[in-house]
Amino acid sequence: MSVRKILIVDDEAAMRKLIRSFLVQEGYAVLEAANGLDALKAAASDQPDIMIVDVMMPYMDGFTFTEELRKTSNTPVIFLSAKGEEWDKVKGLRLGADDYLVKPFHSGELLARIESVLRRTDPNFRKEELLKAGPVSLDQTSHRAFIDEQELSLTVKEFKLLSLLMTNKNSVVTREYLMETVWGHDYSGTERTVDTHVKTLRMKMKQHGELIKTVWGLGYKLEV
Hints:
One of its GO terms (molecular function) is phosphorelay response regulator activity. The protein is α/β, with parallel strands linked by helices. The protein has helices spanning 13-25, 36-46, 62-69, 86-94, 107-121, 156-167, 175-183, 192-204; strands at 5-9, 29-33, 50-54, 77-81, 99-102, 130-133, 136-139, 144-147, 150-152, 173-174, 212-215, 219-222. The chain folds into two domains: 5-122, Response regulator (Rossmann fold), CATH 3.40.50; 129-222, Arc Repressor Mutant, subunit A (Orthogonal Bundle). The strands form three sheets. Strands 2-1-3-4-5 form a five-stranded parallel beta sheet, sandwiched between helices. Strands 6-7-8-9 form a four-stranded antiparallel beta sheet, with helices on one face. The chain has a three-stranded antiparallel beta sheet with strand order 10-12-11.
């Protein structure tokens, strides 16, 4: 698989440096721009595979940038913003963004969203299909999960939950992200749905269910 290029668009140098550090560790090539105007130039000249775009920036904000970008390009965009109101998310998605992540965020969550968007938009993008975390293994190609080589009988949503927790093992995955990723942006239920499915997943994992830790007020973590 060729190296994917990611353009980070954020007026805060410290935030660009932080995001760059863990993207480089994951094998991505990273480009940077400090505002929407510079990002439009970089998008045209460097042709990144995906862009991580802050909403509130000087000269040209993220919403305006994406509106201009969509006139000539379908390059995927993930918004990062401290603005977590529902209307801001709706506006961003309607302007053509592929996802919207509220600050502060965990690096594992951003990486998972990048991979999810690339899988949807790039037919040549492939990540490791076999996930392992302690005694748990998960084959994403055949949709089969095992503990100590004993197969688990999981529903589609339980499989997706376990996959997300394993992809972000030892990191907190928020209830909001689990709900949006597994049930979709348009799901009208409550986060209690996530708790119920995690409870069932733990039961099916028997004594190994304790690997899934509850992080009160945030979400869950698969700790191995």
